[in-house]
Amino acid sequence: MRPEQQSSKSAKVLYRPWGLVGSIVGGIVAGQIFQLAWKHLAPGDQDDPPKPLESEYRLRQILVAAMIQGAIFSVVRAIINRGGARLFQRWTGEWPGD
Questions:
Q1: Count of other CB atoms within 10 angstroms of residue 36
Q2: Which whole-number Å values give the CA distances from 77 to 34, 57, 58, in the listed order?
């Protein structure tokens, strides 16, 4: 187990723009991954996931699409945030979280 590292207030402030850019990039990447996953998982030739207000889809299909999308976004966000924090720590010597 690693010793806990405290971060300074300046490290947290300096990391904010980096974290914002990482979040935007992560959202784009997660969206692309979800589109690819949905094309492989969707029944029939359904390329786009169902939206909540599209009446031709059953609620079950909409909920499954939302769960898959949420899981992918959460995992990608965690990977991007953790990787960004580690890079920030290598460059500055301070951990930006906690």
A1: 11
A2: 13, 28, 29
